[in-house]
Amino acid sequence: MSNRYLSLDWTALFAAAVLAGTALNLWLAARQIRHVRAHRAEVPAPFATVIDLPAHQKAADYTVERARFAMWHTSYSAAVLLGWTLFGALQWLGSANAARLGDGLGAQLALLAEFTLIGTILDLPWDLWRTFRLESRFGFNRTTPGVFAVDLLKNLVVTAVLLLPLAALVLWLMHASPRWWLWSWIAFAAFSLGMMVLVPMFIAPLFNRFEPLADGEVKSRAQALMQRCDFALSGLFVMDGSRRSAHANAYFTGLGAARRVVLFDTLLRQLEPAQIEAVLAHEVGHYKRHHIQQRLVITLALSLAAFALLGWLAGQAWFYTGLGFIPHLPGHQDAAALILFMLVLPVFGVFITPVAAAWSRRHEFQADAYAAEHADARELGAGLVRMYHDNASTLTPDPLYARFHYSHPPALERLARMGALP
Fold this sequence. Notes:
The chain is mainly alpha-helical and 422 residues long. Helix content is 72%, strand content 4%. It has helices at 3-38, 53-84, 89-101, 105-137, 145-176, 180-203, 217-229, 265-270, 273-288, 291-313, 317-321, 330-349, 353-374, 377-390, 399-405, 411-417; strands at 210-212, 235-239, 250-253, 260-264. The longest helix is centred in the first third of the chain and has 36 residues, at 3-38. The mean pLDDT is 92.
């Protein structure tokens, strides 16, 4: 089959996948809105004694508004994607870049940087609306315009400092070796492992303040828990999450000497010490049940497959022309291959979302079970209910929507599994 027909077939397949994925997400969001609205008037019976009707209705309204926002953003993102590809925006940017800078490594990096910067600008109005309208309307936003602007600038600088050298190495390897994709994957794997150390120790502190957990009952319970679990940490830290949001959370991060548990300061204010201990036990459970290692192995395996696929696609003329890009200079084909692959991969990845979500929910169940063994399941349940209340998390999501998009089990299912319903 000629490249012309392959190109047309690829164009049709890509366009169909974009439209199908967009339609699927819009349909799921519409289901979520209908389902949450239908259950807005009454608190689910198991929670009736611990969550009042106004809080339940606030969670319903917040969920509906977020789903509406997602529908508009999904449609916009699909239009931008088609604009970059089939409607020629990347072709135009590549041509303008080639005319100014040629096809050297610097020009290729410039194309990647310009694409990233334009993408950030195109998405900026949505970030502003989400932060200063949606989150503010429901009382969660605490970010000031100044903090938002500084965060945006820091993100751009950190992204440039970290990713441009990696991109330069990949672009150089594309010319230096026929197996450039394998060497690039090795570089990516080393980079990913390094980031698991660098992020908690050096990068995250650029955005938030992290302080060791102060002496008191919470720290005493946490230390006793770590001893029971035979779990060594480089530290327990409290993050000033309240500087940007009223949402509460906790997470496990890092690798080796950088391994740590981080608690939002909002979490410490909302939960009782026994509940925080149970939440910590859940986080430790992710490590003890080897979830961190499993996710790392799967990520590296999938990235190897992705680099191998990119290595093949980068040599196929139809891959470029079918997405509306005809390189004027050889170097820009390499940079365009990276950009187009980053644009295409999520289009087809949306159809395996339920598998990834189900795997994540399975890990959450296992971490809950571990927490129930090493702390009080009732305290974990009470702490989760308080977090659902304070974070305005709906107790009545659409089941199918949850299967596609929820990385954590819905409240009723989760608490019933651990035997901790109110």
